[in-house]
Design brief:
- The protein is an alpha/beta fold.
- The protein contains 4 helices and 6 strands, in the order βαββαβαβαβ.
- A 6-stranded mixed beta sheet has the order 3-4-2-1-5-6, sandwiched between helices.
- The protein is globular and about 30 Å long.
- The relative contact order is 0.25.
Length: about 140
C-alpha cells in the first residue's frame, strides 16, 4: 500500500522544501499539493474552510493560484512524478486537517518557517502539527 502525502503549499521557499522532501522521500507514494488561498477581504477568521479539488491539471486561468499550482506540477514533472492539486480557503490549519481527514491522507509534510507564513500571521507548521488527524513531518 502506497502512502498518500499532503503538502500544504503557497510557493514559499519553505513549501517548496516540503514538496521536494515529499517527492524524494515518498517516491512510490501519491502526493497532493494543497494550495492555501489567502482569505478574501472581510474574512472573519472563523474556523471554516472551503476545499475544492483541482481536477484540471493543465488548465490555467491566469490567476496567481493557478500559476502556483503549475509551478508545483513542474517541480514534480522534473522528477518524473505526478501529483494531485487542490485549493482551500479559510482557516489554514483547519483546511489542511479537513482535507487530510476527508481524502485518506496518511501523512502531512509541511515546511517550517520559524515564523509567520507569507499569507497568515502564525506559523502554519505549528498549527498543523497541533490537532492533526494524521502524522506530520516538518521540514
Amino acid at each position: 500500500m502506497s502512502t498518500h502525502v499532503l503538502v500544504p503549499y503557497d510557493d514559499s521557499e519553505f513549501a517548496r522544501a516540503a514538496l521536494e522532501y515529499a517527492l524524494t522521500e515518498y517516491a512510490a507514494g501519491a502526493i497532493t499539493v494543497l494550495y492555501l488561498v489567502e482569505p478574501a477581504d472581510g474574512y472573519g477568521g472563523t474556523n471554516t474552510a472551503v476545499v475544492a479539488d483541482d481536477e484540471s491539471e493543465n488548465t490555467t486561468s491566469g490567476g496567481d493560484d493557478d500559476s502556483v499550482l503549475v509551478r508545483a506540477r513542474k517541480r514534480a514533472i522534473e522528477q518524473d512524478r505526478e501529483l494531485s492539486t487542490a485549493k482551500a480557503t479559510g482557516d489554514p490549519p483547519q483546511a489542511v486537517h479537513q482535507y487530510a481527514a476527508e481524502h485518506d491522507i496518511d501523512l502531512i509534510v509541511v515546511g517550517d518557517r520559524n515564523g509567520a507564513s507569507q499569507l497568515f500571521e502564525r506559523p502554519l507548521a505549528d498549527d498543523v502539527v497541533r490537532d492533526s488527524p494524521v502524522p506530520v513531518t516538518v521540514v
